[in-house]
Amino acid sequence: MISAQKLQSIVEKKKNLEEKLASGAVTPDQFASLSKEYSDIEPIALKADILLSHHEEKADLKSMLEEGELDEDMLALVQDDLARIEKEIPEFESELQIMLLPKDEADSRNAILEVRAGTGGDEAALFAGSLFRMYQRYSELQGWKLSLMSVSDGEVGGYKEVIATISGKDVFANLKFESGVHRVQRVPETESGGRIHTSAATVAVLPEAEEVDIEIEDKDIRVDVYRASGPGGQSVNTTDSAVRITHLPTGLIVTQQDEKSQHKNRAKAMKVLRSRLYEMERQKLADERAQSRKGQVGSGDRSERIRTYNFPQGRVTDHRINLTLYKLDQVVAGDGLHELIHALQTEDIAQQLAAVNEE
Hints:
single chain; alpha+beta; eight-stranded mixed β-sheet; three-stranded antiparallel β-sheet; 48% helix; flat
């Protein structure tokens, strides 16, 4: 139960912000910061205000019942109102607790999606292609924009590696639990023997970072340029336009060769590097905060096996929440993916609430 004191402090905070914004005694930067803070707390304060009113009304109704001077009709009315309020209070408290959970600052950001073929040779590359098309279709359904950054085609189709940016509303919030190893069990398209094979692909979803988030100094990177090449070593460019950037402190390496311009390839490579470094920092902080939590819905660890797609049985299983759906075709087509994503988000909220209640 959220105390009346806590509820009152939330309402007071909103009121104080309103007064500061109306005072005219703040700089433009302060005004922008206070406006952001106000927009964040306004829906929380409205919910807290409703709860305070409900508690006051509940006390008044109980007092009327205790006085015992009600006729039959009024008694029935008061009892009905009391029953309604007693039902609504825990519902509103639950909603408010969720609103009060620490927000992931990256949730509203665009994302960089990386899909790589893992174990399984040609079949893994084909599976990586299937996964990428799943995210492509899901992005379309959400009204997001997906733009390819880098592509390395598989020998018989699919991708050895594909990197894309996805921009739109709350992209990272929806896709952040997709990072990890995705496993497929099916009869390979590349084999006529009819035996079920297991192969894998790795997915990484990174919040897109801006220059203000991660400052990369020139002394911390080594930039190598070389001639871009296509499949089989075939030259696709006669100039040294491909770029390889090595971040010396961490050893991270990013290559980019899809553009004909060395400048554009460098800009794309820096964008990916900045996002990977930003995600490393986020993960470090998340790990520190999670020390007291018994469980997490996915750590974002790319080596963690998170999901299995079993084609012969038509099922997809998310191992983190032990959820199995017998609608594999819809999931892989993109329009069934939301059910998995919603379940993961719900479980994450439940675990955060449990951790708060244990404190």
